[in-house]
């Protein structure tokens, strides 16, 4: 069968595309490497309003994907990327930030014509059904519900952080998706009645799945694209049942910022020399494929909370507050930094006792790469983030550490956030964050010891939770702080920009502003990889906006033909 569209990847962007492009009768094939869960069979950990169980469930991830984080630390870690219908939106923390007008105006100024704020706002409105705000910034009839936990649910810890922010001139702003200045707020969530709503749930309900012109093919990996000269004609796939090819007039890559460039390169589209070295026949020498990789680089400070200041078991989510502020560093824009405030740091008993200020550089300048080590689809691409390689990012993350250390010692917090310590979401914290009985047992034991005496707690924090460094050690020794941030920096699972949009004259760009890959026909990209740079927001809602706008452009062009 010849499809009108093959969509590769059923993640945040792919679900949008499948819905919008199949609405007018076009024949659409959606191919997803991971499992599909129709609305009546969604696993409980995906539905959970508290995302920490789904976060680290290996069943929903690419198991062998690793990444080098920062050049100076030689650290290569498992990098969580979704492999399940709904993609990142099925396992993410459900935070629904948009980023601000300046992000998109800058996108447009770098060659993504039409992607300025006025150009993207209609699509932010179209994707959402905001349950709290009705004004020109918000949509109230889109597929994706966005709601905010009640401020009254804030724990004692989060209320005290709010007081500290107010004293730092970072005031409370009720609507983070409508006010774009420095401030702190309740977190907007892709969440309805305390349950997750993924892109799959929002865009692929039973009514859409029932369309006879839409086929969803789960547990099937796209190996590479097929061509006739420079015209893409379809895809080769691999699954448990064998290798099959499918044909379409247009293939749309929605495989995310790590796997879309990998599929391109396996197919011969990318940096010619590097592909030739691997024995891959070069179809189009597009230097920008896999370059310009960005992520929000961050570290964290955590503290032990007294029982009365912890999150109530009945409260929604686990990130209760989000803040943005301006670093004031030379050459950096306003609201370039972000802090998310976790009223509990993980699902387990230790996590329930720890509050965390997770802070990151929200407008990053460092860039990394995705490259191939083998032409085989069975080998994951090599991911090098090179976080903090741009000195502005390193300096701002260090300043942020000093700022958050001051915040946690604010008078409103000193009797609430006890024994604060530098923390990171890496190594030990990640291993113990996996949802299983052994980790529950271990953390129950550790939690009991932490509660039993303050001196024992301090020793445990110093020697079992951290690597022995205290906040004051890092504040008094810049070299130590520098080493700490470079060795412990981690992203927020927000990879973007490896196939960035731009003009055909720009050698770093891969697609035009409608997602068409330069120099080829029948091929588009419509996921987080096309973003010219990572916006000042968690990336799920911006990605869904990208797919909404791209699908509109495709349908519009089809109408004109
Ligand atoms: C653990 C985690 C937490 C996050 N937290 C947040 C948050 O709270 N808020 C927020 O805004 N953002 C968050 N994000 C980021 C956000 O979810 C992503 O930016 C967004 O999902 C990206 O959408 P995408 O469509 O580009 O890619 P994805 O959603 O990753 O979708 C890509 C899909 O393509 C499939 N695929 C890849 N290669 C192939 C192939 N060869 N063949 C077939 N299928 C393939 C994958 O299996 C996947 O399902 C988080 C992400 C993760 C992983």
TrEMBL record:
Q: Which domain of life is it from?
A: Bacteria
Which cofactors does this protein require? FAD
Residues reported in the UniProt entry to bind FAD: 84, 92-95, 222
Query: Per the database record, which ranges form the Glucose-methanol-choline oxidoreductase N-terminal domain?
Result: 82-105, 256-270
Q: One GO molecular-function annotation for this sequence?
A: flavin adenine dinucleotide binding
Instruction: Name the UniProt key words of this record, in alphabetical order.
Output: FAD, Flavoprotein
Pfam families in the cross-refs: GMC_oxred_C, GMC_oxred_N
Q: Where does this protein have coiled-coil stretches?
A: none
- Which family does the UniProt entry place this protein in? Belongs to the GMC oxidoreductase family.
How is this protein named in the record?
Answer: 5-(Hydroxymethyl)furfural/furfural oxidase
């Amino acid at each position: 069968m010849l499809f009108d569209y093959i969509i590769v990847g059923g993640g945040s962007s792919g679900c949008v595309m499948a819905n919008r492009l199949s609405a007018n009768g076009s024949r659409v094939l959606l191919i997803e490497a991971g499992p599909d869960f129709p609305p009546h069979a969604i696993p409980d950990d995906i539905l959970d309003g508290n995302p920490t169980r789904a976060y680290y469930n290996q069943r929903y991830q690419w198991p062998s994907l690793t990444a080098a984080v920062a050049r100076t630390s030689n650290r290569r870690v498992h990098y969580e990327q979704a492999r399940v219908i709904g993609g990142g939106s099925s396992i993410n923390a459900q935070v629904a930030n948009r980023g601000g007008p300046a992000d998109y105006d800058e996108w447009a100024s770098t060659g993504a014509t039409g992607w300025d704020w006025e150009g993207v706002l209609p699509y932010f409105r179209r994707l959402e059904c905001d349950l709290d705000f009705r004004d020109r910034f918000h949509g109230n009839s889109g597929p994706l519900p966005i709601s905010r936990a009640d401020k009254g649910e804030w724990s004692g810890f989060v209320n005290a952080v709010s007081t500290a922010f107010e004293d730092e001139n970072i005031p409370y702003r009720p609507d983070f998706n409508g006010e774009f200045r420095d401030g702190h707020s309740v977190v907007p969530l892709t969440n309805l009645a305390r349950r997750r709503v993924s892109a799959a749930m929002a865009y692929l309900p039973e009514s859409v799945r029932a369309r006879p012109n839409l086929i969803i093919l789960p547990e099937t990996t796209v190996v590479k694209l097929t061509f006739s000269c420079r015209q893409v004609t379809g895809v080769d796939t691999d699954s448990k049942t064998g290798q099959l090819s499918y044909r379409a007039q247009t293939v749309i890559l929605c495989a995310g910022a790590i796997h879309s460039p990998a599929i391109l390169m396996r197919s011969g589209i990318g940096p010619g020399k590097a592909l030739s070295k691997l024995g891959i026949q070069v179809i189009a020498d597009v230097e920008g494929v896999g370059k310009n990789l960005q992520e929000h680089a961050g570290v964290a400070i955590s503290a032990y909370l007294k029982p009365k200041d912890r999150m109530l078991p009945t409260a929604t989510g686990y990130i209760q507050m989000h803040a943005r502020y301006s670093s004031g560093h030379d050459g950096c824009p306003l609201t370039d930094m972000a802090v998310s405030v976790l009223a509990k740091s993980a699902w387990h008993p230790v996590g329930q006792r720890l509050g965390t200020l997770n802070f990151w550089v929200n407008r990053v300048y460092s860039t990394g790469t995705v490259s191939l080590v083998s032409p085989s689809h069975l080998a994951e691409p090599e991911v090098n983030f090179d976080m903090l390689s741009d000195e502005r990012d390193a300096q701002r993350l260090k300043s942020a550490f000093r700022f958050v250390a001051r915040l946690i010692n604010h008078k409103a917090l000193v009797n609430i956030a006890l024994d604060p310590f530098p923390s990171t979401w890496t190594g030990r914290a990640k291993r113990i964050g996996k949802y299983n009985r052994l980790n529950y047992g271990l953390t129950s034991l550790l939690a009991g010891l932490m509660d039993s005496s303050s001196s024992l707690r301090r020793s445990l924090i110093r020697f079992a939770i951290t690597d022995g460094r205290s906040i004051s050690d890092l504040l008094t020794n810049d070299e130590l702080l520098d080493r700490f941030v470079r060795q412990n920096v981690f992203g927020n699972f927000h990879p973007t920009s490896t196939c960035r949009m731009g003009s055909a004259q720009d050698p770093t760009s891969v697609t035009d502003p409608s997602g068409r890959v330069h120099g080829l026909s029948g091929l588009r990209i419509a996921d987080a990889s096309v973003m010219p740079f990572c916006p000042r927001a968690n990336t799920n809602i911006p990605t869904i906006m990208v797919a909404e706008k791209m699908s509109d452009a495709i349908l519009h062009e089809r109408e004109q033909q």
